[in-house]
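== Item description ==
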Amino acid sequence: MVRYWIAGWLVLAATAVSADTVWLKNGDRLSGEVILLDGGTLVFRTPYAGRLQIKWADVETLSSSKELLVKEGVDASERSKELEAAGSGMVRVMNGEAPRTVPLASITQMMPPKPFVEDFLWEGNIDGSLDVKRKEDDSDKLRFKANNRLQHGRWRHRFNAETEYETKNSEKKEDNYTLEYSLDRFLTDQWFWTTGYKYQRDRFEELERQREIGTGPGYRFWDNELGRFELTAELNRLIYDQNLDDENGRRHERESIDTGSLNWDYKRLLWGSQFELTATGVIHFPFTQQVDYATRGDMGLRYRINDWARLSLLYEFDQVRGLEETYTEKRYLLGLGVGW
């Protein structure tokens, strides 16, 4: 009985991983799953060798039993129900109408369509770095950044967290964290409405706490296996808690300000998903004459070590312009992370 169960399980497993097949010009045959084609590189996952990057020029033909978005040239694209092998350098596109046999050289991109309504999607990254210095002064600086996006149907949850901790000669110098949550409701495939809350805490600065709540429309230009690009415009209320020292001693003060903001979120996979380019940020336009604008953001490049590990380089910036003066702060984060 056990023997039959194991045999049946192996048959099911083999069926699951052999839905897609790639024949190479050198005679090799690979079974697995098509992840994407971009930039002349086919990303193909196998159960025995993991994620492979294959030069598109080395592919003889291929077959796939799942839906794929197939792009030919610059503009022409269609959704295929399946692909069938069609001889050397050719593939047959089955789209529910008359099958078309096209040359592989004409196909520039290929990827599974990203589900929108019926599926549960979760993606994210966690990046961390440790900066250790041993000179005249001993310092240790630890930083973590986490980004998560969870979508089911027309609802999407976004959760971001960041923490920074630094000691110098065993004395605390930095101890802060940021938590951010946004709830998005998609009105169409592109338009959505977002509402978010952000909380910042810094135990070593006069500006001890900052709270931010905002709401407004957003537009998703694209979101697929190659990346995404979104813009949102929001109205915000920022609340600041400050600890100030004067001749009467230490006192607590709270201020608030209203702003309009523009937020951007960009991600693009490069070179067959080996690299990931990201850019996120926000620019605030306060409804006051003292401050012209305040912007913060980051740009990053991640290198995929394997299916989950990443080597990351992030550049962060903050800039405030007001009363004819500009204050700018820049930071760099080099470290390891995980992604899914």
